[in-house]
Design goal:
Length: 467
């Protein structure tokens, strides 16, 4: 504060001794600067030629004896400066700055990136060489908003090599650096869960997804090569192995130990990690390599939930929601044909997860209605899960479909999920099958089809299901 007062006094004393006053002082002014715009705005500023010509090349040239129109009446005492309406205030600020400039211009410029950008733009147009480096130094040293960065990109081509410090923050990052960051992030994102750093881990996982995602028709920031994919594959394998170890540990652990410690929180973290892993693997077309890990582990996951449901504390809705989120990504991949599984494996997935989802959906809805946003089931996720179940079930043999429909209709939670489309399609296909195969059954040349229609193949499954 004391230094600013000393600076202000020094400037006042200097202006007093050399006979120049402050900007706007009509009694000592010998020059009017008119700020004019296309819209007709015309601002008059009473200035002093000695100050402006000393610190601004534009005014120095404009008021020199060699200027072509200087001898015209009033040309020596009035200078027009044309600008945009939005730049009027920045011109005024710059003219005021010329009156208070010291040996260190950075001390004088106002704070705020928008303000300094405006002054820099005017300083470039009017060739104020003292202010340009100070503005650049300020802008380089402070944070920017995205809109401000766009303005910076418009200005820096006009200031040449002086812009190099700013360009260090703006220029695209080298691919090798992106790869190193990606590798470090993957290693952290697939590390063993630590409850005190889960929020950082979640952030790393989000950024990995962002690096691999196209945006507004732009290519992803990173397209992994073979080396990166190999490292990612190994990291994901370790993640799944650690998850399997966690499942085995929880199955052998006393229920009281699970409830009292942080075991459930760690279990939830593992489920979150797998949900994220499936998202990344799907982006990189690596899902088929890892889907079997989840299919094989699903039975253990649901055994753990069965144990918890039988305890006094019951199952936590957070854990069940995370399990549903992970299974939804796997079921979606199966339903789209991204992963091709044999019939029995597809049926196994449906029989494991459909009852669990049906049982837990009302529990999750009840928890979310109590303003607990942590356990709110995303609407898009539920629609995707429901569509995946429908698609997979419609791809199963009709006998297996019949068993699933029978169980669905007899369950109290018939709404979760909505299998009306499966029921309608099954009825339609049953009628169409009867028409199509009616004439084939009596044709000896179609022995294989005759055997199916006569009661062989998957129709046995339907009889067993309805028994």
């Amino acid at each position: 504060m004391q230094s600013n007062l000393k600076t202000a006094y020094r400037i006042f004393l200097s202006n007093y001794l050399d006979g120049s006053g402050d900007i706007g002082d009509r009694s000592t002014s010998d020059l009017v600067v008119r700020l004019r715009t296309e819209s007709g705005r015309d601002e008059w500023l009473y200035c002093h030629s000695s100050v402006l010509t000393d610190k601004c090349k534009y005014f120095s040239e404009r008021l020199s004896e060699t200027w072509p129109t200087l001898q015209i009446i009033d040309s020596r005492n009035c200078v027009d400066v044309f600008c945009q309406d939005s730049d009027i205030d920045h011109h005024v600020n710059l003219l005021r700055l010329l009156y208070v400039l010291t040996d260190d211009p950075l001390e004088c410029i106002p704070h705020g990136v928008t303000n300094v950008l405006g002054i820099l733009k005017v300083a470039v147009n009017l060739s104020c060489s003292q202010l340009i480096p100070a503005c650049v130094q300020y802008i380089e040293a402070v944070p920017w908003e995205e809109a401000e960065e766009d303005e910076i990109l418009k200005i820096i081509p006009k200031i040449g090599s002086l812009a190099e410090p700013i360009l260090g923050r703006l220029k695209p990052v080298d691919k090798s650096i992106v790869e190193k960051i990606f590798v470090s992030a993957v290693q952290f994102a697939t590390s063993s869960p630590h409850l005190d750093s889960n929020h950082i881990k979640a952030s790393a996982q989000d950024q990995i997804e962002y690096l691999l995602t196209e945006e507004d028709d732009d290519e992803p920031l990173l397209t992994p090569g073979d080396d990166i994919l190999s490292l990612l594959r190994d990291s994901m394998k370790r993640l799944f192995y650690k998850f399997d170890d966690r499942l085995n540990s929880l199955l052998q652990m006393p229920l009281q130990s699970i409830s009292e410690g942080n075991e459930m929180k760690l279990f939830e973290s593992h489920l979150s990690d797998l949900s994220w892993a499936f998202l990344i693997l799907n982006k990189l077309d690596m899902m088929p390599e890892f889907i079997s890990h989840w299919v094989d582990g699903s039975e253990k996951v649901l055994q753990i939930f069965e144990r918890l449901m039988s305890s006094e504390d019951g199952v936590t809705t957070e854990a069940s929601l995370k399990a549903i989120e992970a299974s939804a990504k796997v079921l979606e991949a199966i339903s789209y044909g991204t992963v091709i599984l044999p019939t029995q494996r597809r049926l196994q997935n449906v029989k494991l997860w459909l009852p669990f989802v049906r049982k837990m959906r009302p529990v999750i809805d009840k928890a979310s209605s109590s303003e607990n946003q942590k356990v709110k089931l995303d609407g898009d996720l539920w629609q995707s899960l429901e569509a995946s179940f429908v698609s997979i079930i419609l791809g199963l043999p009709s006998g297996d479909q019949a068993g699933i429909i029978k169980e669905w209709l007899s369950d109290a939670n018939v709404r979760y999920p909505d299998l009306r489309e499966v029921f309608e399609m099954w009825c339609h296909r049953a009628r169409m099958a009867k028409k199509r195969f009616g004439n084939i059954a009596g044709n000896p040349s179609d022995g294989v089809i005759t055997n199916i229609v006569a009661g062989g193949g998957t129709n046995d499954n339907m009889d067993d299901s309805l028994a």
